[in-house]
Amino acid sequence: xxxxxxxxxxxxxxxxxxxxxxxxxxxxxxxxxxxxxxxxxxxxxxxxxxxxxxxxxxxxxxxxxxxxxxxxxxxxxxxxxxxxxxxxxxxxxxxxxxxxxxxxxxxxxxxxxxxxxxxxxxxxxxxxxxxxxxxxxxxxxxxxxxxxxxxxxxxxxxxxxxxxxxxxxxxxxxxxxxxxxxxxxxxxxxxxxxxxxxxxxxxxxxxxxxxxxxxxxxxxxxxxxxxxxxxxxxxxxxxxxxxxxxxxxxxxxxxxxxxxxxxxxxxxxxxxxxxxxxxxxxxxxxxxxxxxxxxxxxxxxxxxxxxxxxxxxxxxxxxxxxxxxxxxxxxxxxxxxxxxxxxxxxxxxxxxxxxxxxxxxxxxxxxxxxxxxxxxxxxxxxxxxxxxxxxxxxxxxxxxxxxxxxxxxxxxxxxxxxxxxxxxxxxxxxxxxxxxxxxxxxxxxxxxxxxxxxxxxxxxxxxxxxxxxxxxxxxxxxxxxxxxxxxxxxxxxxxxxxxxxxxxxxxxxxxxxxxxxxxxxxxxxxxxxxxxxxxxxxxxxxxxxxxxxxxxxxxxxxxxxxxxxxxxxxxxxxxxxxxxxxxxxxxxxxxxxxxxxxxxxxxxxxxxxxxxxxxxxxxxxxxxxxxxxxxxxxxxxxxxxxxxxxxxxxxxxxxxxxxxxxxxxxxxxxxxxxxxxxxxxxxxxxxxxxxxxxxxxxxxxxxxxxxxxxxxxxxxxxxxxxxxxxxxxxxxxxxxxxxxxxxxxxxxxxxxxxxxxxxxxxxxxxxxxxxxxxxxxxxxxxxxxxxxxxx
Length: 791
Prior knowledge:
Helix content: 55-70%
Strand content: 5-15%
Number of domains: 3
CATH architecture of the largest domain: 3-Layer(aba) Sandwich
CATH topology of the largest domain: Rossmann fold
Low-confidence stretches: 463-484
Number of helices: 27
Shape: globular
Largest sheet: 8 strands, mixed
Mean pLDDT: 86
Radius of gyration: 28 Å
Distance between the termini: 78 Å
């Protein structure tokens, strides 16, 4: 065995840093692969599953390898050094991955399962090896302790490592990626791995090593299935709770970082707390039963308090909306309060699992590998089941109830396996109470669930205009709703929970309908609001360019943009949409979209827009893109320079791109960064502002705006009727012209470009969520044009 002549705290510090680096890598690599494989839930699940699978393989291999256990500190140093070297190369490996996927994409065509295998293969090739190395570290370090100490210290190591992951989640989301970008974040993290390796080597030189045979477990044991099912339930909860919390806290990169960090913090706390607090004489089945019943009770607590979150958010908004840092901190604490108890108990499951082997200390290092592996494999299946089976089939709320029932069944099974003299009827009473509550707890209010409080909390706060300048012009007048309304005033006429988003259609008494995606209105039939913008996205590029044979629309929404293009008798209109439920919801706008989904010249493609543009071989005369707001996670991938380059390659030689961007809930600097990035790819711009929406045409050729040509093209029968629905005349349209590429010449030269490696807009846009400077931004852009023309 190995005896360490150091304070053991140094070992825990090194493993804390290992957890930190592991989460930073996972987040950074996921972002790299999302730009290659797409930002669909399938692609994300494959990435996460392969990473977790690598951890499971590494843990299982390490727990059983006699060679790896001979010199644990040297092996640990070698593993950390391998992770550092390999990880440092991943930013440059991404180019090879891109080439490989592009080649394979053209080969597999539309074969779904072959494409899944292709993505899994590429993901495995990208980071399976470092994930295996990371997974191997825990059983290796467990070997450092005396046999009698291994069980307790294994749980503490697990908790400390997860605590490092909490720090990695927060720092990567709030500091490293926004400040350094992806490549420099990875390189900085790799340097930390090198320091960890040097620390382990330093300790190894001060320790004595003797050969000790590694005792293996005696094959498969049924109890492993308990650990498997616990991992399954835990990851189901994580997916389900993240999806639910995003409806109230939003889906920005900061919201996801807070949710993940809060989840990991509970697991770290539970494992650390119970590492030395399980009585030696406690029956392991009894203790495991109690944990399962309490997790079920915590799930019920989540179900019960969830509908009260909006009222707390309103108070948080009132107190902290002027400070981004304080508001984020308050949100993190609120999320933590909601999920901490359940995740704390999930963390306790690891030391509880080790307690089953309390009488066989010589097997602990092997059992750590087994427990971690089975738990992780269960986690993989849980994530896939929750995201691709449970949510689409029965929805988030019912899925939480179902997984709560799974915990109850596990608890009952363990209770029945408890020795009779140790059975505590009070434990079973907890299970009975949970079952009753799961069956009879009231259902969630879907109108409140879809109200988008993360973006519109201010609507429900009585605030004098003099106190908050940012909302003198309500965001609601930007076409989101016609007037301030409360959730109770909305009638839900469609509701669907898809793989990537929750989609709803609401209707007010005055007939106004809105399409909501994750609670945020993405389209409506307000004639002079959303309707006009949707029409312009289809009509404007054709009116400026002239005829077109083929058009690609990115984002279906209500279908109005595609319907507007159909008025120009375009032979081929392709539309790529990431969420199938949006297509279902668009049927409630058939009057406005002219039944576009039923037309023979229209093709709907369910895919990530970025993935399709980068890898599909087709060419188009026009691409018109209206993704969601920049502060929605994943949307920023459609605003980077690399995406615009890919879009330009997909255009025919005289092609044109029309890009939408919001002027509400965004800063002037972010708009300037977008324009600078866009113009770096498309030399000629034509900028049009419709209230708080901006449409920017991009091309290689100048795009002069001629009033007589515009009038003639707008007078064509089908086009004229379509535009009249929003009162658009040639004179009114001309008032919306704001300028051209000259605006970019007066933008500050030190502003960065928004790139895949440095996605500045994804991290800066959410900071403006409570701003509405659309009028000021519009005036500034017009002023920039005048300054440029004067010079």
